[in-house]
Amino acid sequence: MKLFNNKFIIILRHAERADMVENAIIENIKCGIYDTELTDRGKSQAYEAGIKIKEFFYDKKIDLKLLERDKKIKFLCSPFARTLITSFQMLKGLNLTTPITIEEGLCEHLSKKWYPCPPENFLAWIQHEESKEKIYLNSEIEDHSIIHDSKTPLLSYPETHEECAIRLKSVYENITNFYLEECDNEVLFLITHYLPIELFVKLYALEESKIDLTCEYCMTLAFSYEKELENKIKFIDKIYPKF
What we know:
It is built from six helices and seven strands, in the order βααβαβαβαβαββ.
């Protein structure tokens, strides 16, 4: 039974990363300098974002617990440590236990400017269980259920800005078609990075004046999805932080 007319897409940027704060000590980064974890402030941001998202759906009279039970809700996350930890803290704020599905295509822009080697060389998630980075990451997500069933693989490293934009446009089309139409989920969460959100806004927010494109840490945007419409995805509101 359909609960409401529109389906929803909630897209958010990861919270504050440990290497981008004043006086950051690189030697203390626990997930490696190319796959950094969150600060304590970042964890609080992600938790608070979860609370604000819950309030958003409460205002819409939508019970996310019911969607979780009926498996009508999906959390897709970039494979980076900062997005995985953001996802876990956000789920705590939402008071949900839904598994996190890693979607490789939602990853950061794989530019040589930022990453001198392919992601399989530094991502904590895909390292051996006994690596100190993987052990730390697992402790941060407290063995939350993670599904590595990506429908959109990483492109070849490195990629230009244009190649990244092409990748992301294809990723958004593929995952919305698959998860919202073929799988008939009602709510789709996308936890990703600055550039993927910037592109999503440019693709689907027709009234961009309503959105602050500075894209703060943990910025969370709500969109509706109606498959019957030519322009299926429509901007609704900025959930966190508020304007």
